[in-house]
Amino acid sequence: MSEDGSGFSVSPSVKLMLLQGQIQSSQSTQSSQSSQNSQSSVSPAPPASTASTAAPGVPASASELAAVLSSLRSDGEDCRALLRRAAASRQLGEGVEEELRLAEDALDLFRAEGGPPWPSRATSSTSPNWEAAALCAVAEAHLGIQDAPKALEAAEEARALCRAQRSRTGEAEALVVQFKAQLLTISEDQRIVRELLALWRELGATWGEVAETLSMAERCRASGVQLEDALADAAEKRELEHRWGLAQDLCAALCVHPAFRAKAKLLRLLEAPGMLPHSFAPAER
Fold it and tell me: 201 and 123, same structural domain?
């Protein structure tokens, strides 16, 4: 538990301990009461002084326990912590199931605690949108098992949410996730797509870094780079285990690939305002 100027915040682990402790206390109380009832026919009633010093009751029902936990939650902090854990799980390769569970928990928690319906929430173009971020995290988890339909559904919902709120950074992030999901719909040379998506996951690439990689790939295409040249460069980077360079070369190969250029949805996303924004630089490492 930590204290700052705005009050106390309680970590999820402490809350779990509290919940477990209350359940155990409830079970102990109920067991004690049951034992006393079974012995009441043969044992005298306890003195009044003993009853007056008995421990106070604890919440026994699920709704009462939920109310206790809800009263301890700080505004949005748990949602952000869950999203950080989901991102770490993705990069460390701890399993898509765990990543998806954390992302969905963050989304459910935000929607349960996030205040009024989303159209009336923050409308600043730079305000963080935790609901959209959670939706993007859900989409990223589905990308981990190459479930394009579910990834697209979550990414499109996040984008619509950000557009309604005029959140430029949120919409840019959702666009990048939507773009990655659309890559899975390319039927030819899926090996390039899968290796590139896996690299972005392992590297923990932010939406800004992915957007910058795409921007550089488009500049390579405009300068006349051919598919064979990009794949040869990628093979060299793979041999040297230069993973960021490999991601860049694979992205360049993808952007000049005929199957990619034939995908109207991909091209529309690539040309969408904010997809390759000059005002958004990739996060520093």
Answer: no
SS3 of residue 227 by DSSP:
helix
pTM for the full predicted model:
0.65
- Does 239 reside within a domain? yes
Note down the domain range covering 179. Answer: 74-185
180 and 201 fall within a common domain: no
Q: Are strands 2-4 and 7-9 parallel, antiparallel or unpaired?
A: antiparallel
Tally the residues of the chain: 285
Distance CA 32, CA 247 (A): 63
185 and 149 Cβ atoms separated by less than 8 Å: no
Cα separation of 65 and 69, whole Å?
A: 6
- Class of residue 3 by CB neighbours under 10 A (exposed 0-12, middle 13-18, buried 19+): exposed
Q: Which of 168, 185, 202 is the last residue of a domain?
A: 185
Quick: pLDDT tens for 126-140: 345 889 999 999 999
